[in-house]
Amino acid sequence: MTGNATRGFSYEEDLLFERSRPGRCGVELPRNDVPEVDPRALLGALSRDELPGLPELSEVEVVRHFTRLSTWNAAVDLGLYPLGSCTMKYNPKINEKVARLPGFAHAHPFSPASETQGLLALFFELERCLAEISGMDRVTLQPAAGAQGELAGIMMIRAYHAQRGDKRTKVLVPDSAHGTNPASAALNGYEIVSVASGSDGILHPKAVAEAMSDDVAGLMITNPNTLGIFETHLAEICDVVHAKGGLVYGDGANLNALVGVARPGDLGIDVMHFNLHKTFSTPHGGGGPGAGPVGVKASLAAYLPTPVVERAADGTYQWNDALPHSIGRLHGNHGNVGMLVRAHAYIRALGPDGLKRATQLAVLNANYLLARIRGAYHVPYANPVLHECVVTDRMLAGTGVSTLDVAKRLIDHGYHPPTVYFPLIVNGALMIEPTESESKEGLDRFADALLAIAEEAHTDPETVRSAPHHTRRRRLDETRAARKPVLRWQPGGA
Amino acid sequence: MTGNATRGFSYEEDLLFERSRPGRCGVELPRNDVPEVDPRALLGALSRDELPGLPELSEVEVVRHFTRLSTWNAAVDLGLYPLGSCTMKYNPKINEKVARLPGFAHAHPFSPASETQGLLALFFELERCLAEISGMDRVTLQPAAGAQGELAGIMMIRAYHAQRGDKRTKVLVPDSAHGTNPASAALNGYEIVSVASGSDGILHPKAVAEAMSDDVAGLMITNPNTLGIFETHLAEICDVVHAKGGLVYGDGANLNALVGVARPGDLGIDVMHFNLHKTFSTPHGGGGPGAGPVGVKASLAAYLPTPVVERAADGTYQWNDALPHSIGRLHGNHGNVGMLVRAHAYIRALGPDGLKRATQLAVLNANYLLARIRGAYHVPYANPVLHECVVTDRMLAGTGVSTLDVAKRLIDHGYHPPTVYFPLIVNGALMIEPTESESKEGLDRFADALLAIAEEAHTDPETVRSAPHHTRRRRLDETRAARKPVLRWQPGGA
Amino acid sequence: MRYLPHTDADIREMLARVGQPDLGALFESIPAQFRLTRALDVPAAASEYEILAEFEALAAQNEHAGARAWFLGAGVHHHFVPSAVDALISRAEFYTSYTPYQPEISQGTLQAIFEWQTMLCGLTGQEVSNASLYDGASATAEAVLMALRVSKRRKVAVSSALHPHYRGVLETYLAALDFELITLRRGSDGRTLPSAIDRETACVLVQQPNFLGCIEDLRALAHAAHAQGALLVTAVAEAISLALLAAPGDCGADIVCGEAQSFGVPMAFGGPHLGFLTARMAHVRQVPGRLVGETLDADGQRGYVLTLSTREQHIRRERATSNICTNQGLCLMMATIFLALHGKTGMRQLAERNLAKAEYAKARLRAAGLTLPFAAPSFNEFVVQLREPADRALARARAQGIVAGLDLAKFVPELGDALLVCVTETASRASIDRLATVLAGAGA
Amino acid sequence: MRYLPHTDADIREMLARVGQPDLGALFESIPAQFRLTRALDVPAAASEYEILAEFEALAAQNEHAGARAWFLGAGVHHHFVPSAVDALISRAEFYTSYTPYQPEISQGTLQAIFEWQTMLCGLTGQEVSNASLYDGASATAEAVLMALRVSKRRKVAVSSALHPHYRGVLETYLAALDFELITLRRGSDGRTLPSAIDRETACVLVQQPNFLGCIEDLRALAHAAHAQGALLVTAVAEAISLALLAAPGDCGADIVCGEAQSFGVPMAFGGPHLGFLTARMAHVRQVPGRLVGETLDADGQRGYVLTLSTREQHIRRERATSNICTNQGLCLMMATIFLALHGKTGMRQLAERNLAKAEYAKARLRAAGLTLPFAAPSFNEFVVQLREPADRALARARAQGIVAGLDLAKFVPELGDALLVCVTETASRASIDRLATVLAGAGA
Ligand SMILES: Cc1ncc(COP(=O)(O)O)c(C=O)c1O
Ligand SMILES: Cc1ncc(COP(=O)(O)O)c(C=O)c1O
Question: Which ligand is closest in space to the CA of residue A292?
């Protein structure tokens, strides 16, 4: 292990159900001040007697259980978490505090606008900021994550064409795209046409032109793309698509490479999503929640999901439900509001200069790291990168050490691995996104670990192939898990 | 390692000063809305230019620094923390929440009583509860910890005698007493007379009678004593002391063995302290803060520290500063209020039955654990124990394994060691207090670890002697630290 | 800037290493004409102190359940959350980690999800639970899409007593696809009538308890659906009811979906909440979202991993069972802790307390001379008919610090002046009495 | 009970193992007549929900700095605390651990204390810092006791401008011992006069800035003390001032003690706060309280341990340098994090901001026609003389949501109708203007 990690131990902890003992309970209810009701008598067969699957534990045991579990995770607060495309930047503590203010945390979505002006004002201002940052005209905050944003965006594209009586059946998606792009378009009933990236890793107008037709509703594109490379021909590509009546969807997962430096809207993007849990620092929570607002050009504003927030002449804020052409509602309520509050606090903390600075340093970090490890790892594309870089295991060929092994070995050095085997167009990809939160010394330590592993792959490949060696659990057998799935605990196993 | 701990790793982290880089900062102030002032111009030589010793770090680095440091600690929330005499019971989360309510956390001690009725009401009620639990007549909440409570108590004893023009110079302290007892009495100018415990580990009236004289201000006694044994002759001992005009101070550190079962006041104790951070579940914070309220019999009420809270006829609460015979003020303000709030929440949560139940289960746990390890560890005293038990390393004689080695080896099993080499009257003492928070299975796992170590001491003593083996740092050289003390970081070492 | 560790010296050294003169040069791959030459028009940077003051001011403008007598539910419920929940999800290892793609360094999250899956299967009477979906509404849409895949039919029979927002999201999700939505009428007792189900029906979708608070007879609906070879999809919007009502799976529901916000997740103006979906093992490959499974490590030790990912977008792309990627992980963690704390005993008591409070409220409202239109039994929510426009009654109640419920005029106009009232364990007898008085007010 | 894991079955098995028939039998070593036969008269057990409601009601009855314009200090100061501080001290590994007796499993706490010791030595200009004492008042008493041990003399010369509560606690601590307290008069400029120091004087004790907000000339006082072979003990009640004023140690203070609550510790009605004490290495063996030192482990790796414990009660018993055992560890952690976040730049800016705000307030009050009696410079606190009884002015200010300061009538009667006003970075210009207006009120 390099200087980042050293000897230690882990606490063990069984499943809740294995620690359960009949008669324990971790809560008590207030004294009951109304008559008891016997459910059986009142509901008969509509009621149940047994609660299988629930454990019985005291408060102290539950607290220890989850505290111990937590110690088995990597986390941004413990160190670099360079998952490419995931933008694991620092999650400011003040955001956690403001999101918990009772006026936000205990407000109800059905409270009338007149009683929730503070929240509507926040929505209105956040929409304005996101529109300004992206160069879009209007924004909806409803989508719960990027993928739902994609769904909403494609739905608006469909509504736009339908409105014109224009039945289009295909959507173009570059082969370097994230899986949610084709999945979201398909969920909209579109047929996916994959467009090949050029040998330089970016999309070329020619390739798009060939695939483009009056049957194509639009193109989904990520910029900078999943290689971290700016799509230099994007404007021209947008023209190609627009010329054939199509629209361009922008996957905003990598917006953190552009904030304050360039605006997707200025590049010709018609509709895009924001991942507030990436670019705008809301914590990823071990899988979520995130938030995936969508920005649109005026041409698509009529199709926004309802309701939308509007400011009345008297300066008060209201909900507007009456958009005749709206694609309708995407969320049971107003979206992942808690995340919106955090993202707004982040924008307030950085301001115009800070937002731009963060972008510049994220890009500097990715370029610096690449410069440090170039030579030990193969760099598939020559183009300059922005906020993340992709390298491969090609130089380890012959050692028997693969990208997966490098990833697992990084864990022994105290690092969460980068994204691996994505984008699919790169063999054995290691996709590394340090974000602006990492200091130069931190990047140097991480680069040293990567170099040490490349070295070790040649001197002692077996140690790398069998990594990790210092975690509570060694390498886990994913094939076994999929072959005979055990998806819940059952008394006496089985 | 037994089932409680297994393989793992630790994150490394340098000192703040080693991570510092000129120009970094983890905070920003609000925009300044008043004229700047040049300190040099205003204050000249009264001002300074340099701030040596302060580091320069961004917020993310500070958060990672302390998050990593935290992972090097054992904690109650991670498992059994059986430090004898320290009562490391579970610290309920609701207590942390209520202590942070703005009306408590941001109140000011100089706000008039009329503006802080909620706090005064809490003080009044907590005093009442502590008096009821202990069998005392009045309580002061001012002392910041047990030792300051001892100081206050002894001061009141002195004031009581002084009031009678009775100049007494000695205080009796059993040889099994905690170090703070003699230290607190000495800080009061008293000469300490040590009284030997009997071969049964408890104090005998005869021994006290022999040491007792008109020159003795009083006796300090811990009950149950530091062996966890109830002082069976306490009532008689109190009579002996009282007969000679002395008073009896009760060290309440072990009150958790008696709550709801017996009351020190009924046993003849005249004045005692409470350790709210032991018996009443306030967290120990890695060393403090605690709170050490003191209860007194009516005979000593006149000497209580000022101010005291009183309820007026109209039901409002006031501060009373005018106790002519008071020993005066012990704290700059009202004591460790945040801890008082937590302790009160604990009493409210348990109620009369819960408080007694907690006592019974704490005693059951200590007795059960002792029964499990008896035979592998020497039990110096035959008397039944209450909330904690003391065993020794005598049975390991010849193996070269000592109490300290057993303690360190427990760490490899994922346990914080018990208190060691205390009380001083027992050679190689291991003083174990499981508290009521530990489940039977938890105790069994811990007993298994202790038995495994005793076994290992015979089969593989070297492994025990060189423990711990799995921590970030191996056994630390305390002698070296004391020989040439390095008590702060300095640029370039030295 | 306090979040950025870079010093000017760092930046100089790093630029030198990458061979660039300045930070701007890093962006030369962006065509010059598209590079922003002005500062963004967003508010100037603020210190923590200013942010806190600003957000406190905004928060203060919203009514919230902490400061009112609260009887408004309708899919977002006010329940008490033990303080251990927030204390534990505030562990940075939980909230600042990503989806557990790398199991060896994510076992904490993975084991908790496995525990959630187990508990939710028990509560819903199913064999498979996923690791959360966005919310109850999208979970319901995903459940219907799953039923359509399983049954390969094209009609969806939807209860008219489904939460209108769930219905809305379902319509949005299905709009592009060529499926047919049929509405199942409501009987006079407030429950769904199993009519209009035929051989083309892919699934019957009902909410339990339904939007009007009525407890459906799931067995009868399952029978009717299965008789036509259709699946029964049951949506649950008030998850606490699962601890008291017959498990949907045991009543024949093939897919159970819905919203678990009531398990310790703050109302937070509607999100983030916790969509869930459980099903039969036979249909596991059609389940949307992430699944955690048990396996062994290289030493043969038990551990947990994300599994059956061939269903998912990152592998299967356009043929995935769903497009979901980021889900509601931390809300799942809250719910898992909430359920662990309550356990068998606590959950049962909590559900019974909700029932008792609601029954008391119903009695008081009846006694106050108001009409409860539906005969079907309810859990903690029910409809009450007023003698005045609901908005007027709501305004009068608000003036007394009571948020009395949801005005149904917009959602179920045929009920006239009606309120949907939700009474949970948080309502004191006194506050219920005040509710009855204020709602009776006009007529009294 | 939710905190107790024992089931009835557990208890039965455990009793069997210890050979007792029931729980009561475990207490037979207590003479029967002393066993309590009734239930304790304390309130019945309450659920979390009830506790929260009850405590919220109590908290709501107290005025606090979060909801008022705040100008009250006098040793307890309202400063903004970055949210990272509470987030980090809420790590269970910090707040649910004990004193780090076992270094191998307590390195987190130990390294943080070592970092605190380093920073505090830098701020106070000293060579040794302990690991906290109870509060500023008892730290001052401990400092004087230490000076008495070092000098072996029996007179203590105390500035009349020492915080009256520090003076009170000092008197309490010294009452039993045969030492003499002499009071040093105050000059007209508000600073302490170095009179009445002689060969019997063990130490001179002054507060910096003093209780009246005046900045003392420590060099002159040190000179006067040292000339007689006495030590200079400097008490600091507003620790932020250390970032702006000449370090007491550099001015000749032999012991620096006081209160570090201003470093991120909530006011909390007066505690828990953070007493500190720093001194010269030459006197290290007379220092009270815990000390952390650097050492090596069995592998030669750097680590930290509690050290020089032969000074302490658990080893030295009645000959210990103090009786302190439990200290203010978690408050030390808050302060260490607070200082780490602010660092050189932030602490300097914070101190300068306090100075600027206070100077602005002084100007406004003067402009409003009020008198500032003392010519000596101040930091963030000062005395203003009113044209009416202070309590009347305070009441009028309170009615406007302003807590205007401390009425000095009780503490320094000779100043007449005077207020001690504290102006920190939390005071906005607007609130200062309102303060000036309301205090001028009567005369205007
Ligand atoms: C490039 C890209 N697009 C889309 C997504 C999907 O976003 P979300 O996870 O918020 O649904 C991601 C997230 O991993 C992504 O990296
Ligand atoms: C028996 C005994 N007495 C007194 C004390 C001192 O109490 P405190 O640490 O609260 O000052 C302790 C604490 O360790 C103790 O165990």
Answer: 1
The answer to whether the CB of B57 falls within 8 A of the CB of B19 is: yes
Dihedral of alpha carbons C339, C344, C346, C349, sign: positive
Q: What is the mean pLDDT of residues C192-211?
A: 96
Q: A198: CA distance to ligand 1 center in Å? A: 23
> What residue ranges of chain B have pLDDT lower than 50?
494
* Structure confidence by residue, pLDDT tens digits, D184-219: 999 999 999 998 899 999 999 999 999 999 999 999
- Please report where in the chains the tokens 């406004």 appear, as a residue: D364
Strands C418-422 and C381-385: antiparallel
Q: How far apart are CA B89 and CA A137, in angstroms?
A: 58
To test the contact with chain D by mutation, choose from A93, A341, A437 the residue with the greatest count of D C-beta atoms within 10 A, namely A93
pLDDT higher than threshold 60 for residue A254? yes
Size of interface A-D (CB pairs under 8 A): 50
Ligand nearest to the CA of C134: 1
Q: Which of A180, A231, A279, A340 to probe ligand 1 with, by most ligand atoms within 8 A of CB?
A: A180
What type of residue is C333?
A: M
Residue C442 has pLDDT above 80, yes or no: no
**Closest partner CB to D2 (pick from A59, A93, A96):** A59
Q: For residue B493, what pLDDT is reported?
A: 67
CA of D101 to the centre of ligand 2 (A): 14
Rounded distance between C-alpha atoms, residue D248 and residue D183, angstroms? 21
Verify whether the Cβ–Cβ distance A27 to D2 is below 8 Å: yes
CA of residue C111 relative to chain centroid, distance: 22
ipTM of the complex: 0.98
Contact state of D47 with A58 under an 8 Å Cβ cutoff: no
- Look at residue C78 in the predicted model and tell me its pLDDT: 98
Query: What CA–CA distance (Å, rounded) separates A130 from A295?
Result: 8
**How many Å apart are CA C262 and CA C74, to the nearest integer?**
12
The C-alpha R_g of chain C, in whole angstroms, comes to: 25
- Assess contact for D271 and B289: CB atoms under 8 A: yes
> In the prediction, which pLDDT does C443 show?
47
Against chain D, the chains showing at least 3 CB pairs within 8 Å are A, B, C
CA distances from A54 to A51, B256, C77, C131, C345 (A): 6, 33, 22, 17, 9
pLDDT for residue C441 is more than 90:
no
The number of the ligand nearest the C-alpha atom of B224 reads 2
Q: What is the mean pLDDT of chain A?
A: 97
Q: Does D90 touch chain A (CB under 8 A)?
A: no
pTM of the model: 0.98
Question: Given this model, what pLDDT does residue C195 score?
Answer: 87
Place of tokens 């994505």: A422
DSSP SS3 for D233: strand
Residues of chain D with Cβ-Cβ distance to A63 below 8 Å are 92
Cβ pairs bridging A and B (under 8 Å) = 106
In the predicted structure, residue D425 carries a pLDDT above the cut 70: yes
Question: Residues A307-315: what's their mean pLDDT?
Answer: 97
Q: Could you give the CA distance from residue C442 to residue B104 in angstroms, rounded to a whole number?
A: 42
- For residue D152, give Cα distances in angstroms to B187, D149, D224: 16, 5, 19
First to last CA, chain C: 62
State the distance from the centre of ligand 1 to the C-alpha of A86, rounded, in angstroms.
7
Tell me the pLDDT tens digit for each residue of D378-401.
999 999 999 999 999 999 999 999
Is the pLDDT confidence value at A494 over 60?
Answer: no
Contact C5 B96 (CB under 8 A): no
Q: Average the pLDDT over D427-433 and give the result.
A: 98
DSSP string, C350-411: HHHHHHHHHHHHHHHHHHTT-B----S-BSSEEEEE-SS-HHHHHHHHHHTTEE--EETTTT
